[in-house]
Amino acid sequence: MLLRNLRLGLFALAISGLAAVRAQEAVRIDPENPKYLLFRGKPLALISASEHYGSVINRPFDFEKYLDDAQKHKMTVTRTFLLYRELQSARNPSSPCKPESPDFIAPYPRTGPGKAMDGEPMYDLDKWNPEYFDRLHRFLDAASKRGIVVELTIFSNTYVDNIWALHPLRAANNLQHVGTVDWEDYISLKDAELVRRQKAFARKIIQETSGYDNVYYEICNEPGGSVPGHATSADVDAWQTEMARVLREEMQRLNRPHFDIVNDHPLPNTQSGGQTFDMGDFMSKQLRLAGVQGFCRATFAQRKPVSLDEDNAASIYRDTAGWTIHRKRAWTALLSGCHYDYIDFSITVGSEAGTPASRAAIRSWMQHLSEFMDSFDFVHSAPAPDWIAAHPQHLLVSSLSASGKDFAAYLADDRETDDPAAGESISGDVTLALPPGSYEVWLYSPVTGEYSPAIQIHGGDKSEITLPPFKQDIVVRATRSE
Length: 482
Description:
single chain, alpha+beta, eight-stranded mixed beta sheet, six-stranded antiparallel beta sheet, elongated
């Protein structure tokens, strides 16, 4: 299914197993709740502060060190680009998907004769690069050993001409002179020979990787369209549909089942089901929790996983303020039935485990969220907006109920960062409206990962608890005790 105007990717997911893993135990839609996945016999919520996305394509990047830290901090997924290299910039010069030209590993060997536009030898598109596929397999093996699922992003928008200038499939960069289109038409069906090469690459990736139990595939990162005089949104949709057909056909040929995930990159005018959601400007330090919650709740009825697959609201700001925004958006998404991936720009070549500051902050906070979700029966859950009947002002409540027995509510200060009062201490009474029964109620800190002592309350009538003074966010959890 393709949804327009959401910067969505259509996912075709392989669920085959390694030799030691039966297919029915590999990553797939959870049969008990199609909003979540099932991986190695356990329900899976996708949660990550991911590197930006050069584990395979950037030769000096130590992906073992990165994956060790991701495992330590309970990240369940990582995202990886397979045929896209981004240009360094003054604002963001050093993410892993921006390798120096000699360090970029492409699926095609650089044999020459002649030089590509980056000054390195030209690519031979009639050959596959053994180094690339060896590194891809080593990366997937390493992630598999650590129990981490990998989103393999096959194609990407190329955005501007100077990024398109780096691409192996641009005519000036390869011996076969494939790719004579402008960058705006790269993800369209306009160039038949370019499309043939794209299809061959897509099939090769499926052939090399569909035997892993921990992979799924994104067709294209941030597909665009509608640049005047170039491919329209309908043209890009047609290209994605054709690439999806090729991927599914290849998986079927290999007897590999597949399924879909909806992938959203949050933006101000995200549209779904006739509604528009403001989830904040790109790298703006805007919180926009109501938009995040609204989108997740609106798409919950769509019976497939929905992932905020690359949140960039404040990712470039490697400080407490930026990290706090992403902690709050991550909790809001997960407690509203979505999955969540944020780019952690503290991860670079030479700092593959982030920095001491990011490990103490956002990476530990994401670990607390992952551990909390692992303790909650989310696969049997649904949004439960009414069990918190009243609460202090300035709080947005996102909540789930698991089988009517376990209730979790995330209460976050939703004041925007430009509000002078944002982040000030909040306290007061919360009114709970729980079904009949006896409950243990705890408070939980998303910052420390610690619970308060439990108190006993009875459901059936409204009950009040008093929140101690806190800043930014707190979780209320109520579990039926009988």
